[in-house]
Design a protein that fits this description.
single chain, 2 domains, 5 helices, about 80% helix, about 0% strand, rod-shaped
Amino acid sequence: MSLCLVDWTAVAAWVQAVGSIAAIAAAIWIGKRQYTQSVALLETQHRQNLDLIEHEQRRLADSAEQDRIDEGRDLKELVRIVIDPLMQQSEERLQVLARYEDRKDPLPTDAIEILRTIAAEAEATKQQLAELRDVFVGRPRHLLVHGHLIGALGAIARVAHREQVQDGVRKFRVEQLAQAAFNAPQTPIEVQPFTTQALIEAINQLHHVFDTVGQ
């Protein structure tokens, strides 16, 4: 009977080789696991950073919106202070002037004085707003509204002045008719009747523009 002799040197070499392979495999597995964990951690941190950025953007947007609202409110209040003297008196003055609607004769002194006052206040208010232009420069829309306010006030002043000129024509017509008996025959001057329509429209336009201030 023959016995198989074990080459323990070879066995040891094989065991060592298998151990080395196992160690390499374990190292690869551990490295891959650490890489996966690192990637997962980075993705988590990235999502957290994105959430923080989104939150901060919302906060800044909300803050900017609130600042815009506060800025618009302050701007509207400033404009109100400037134009209130003219606007508060406009309804009462228009009621007085409405008594002379369609009149072709010269207006009485009180009506002429109202027209002069409206024109003077509109011009003065226009000048005050013009001096406040820098306050409106911050936003293009505010600056555009500022221009519309100036335009509306200018229109009020022009209409009031035009009615004064028309009243001068009416007075001249009265004088012409009074002297007709002493002068050669001539065609009487045609006059426009007094109307508050254009003045009402100009004042309403100022109200409309004011409603858009600060928006």
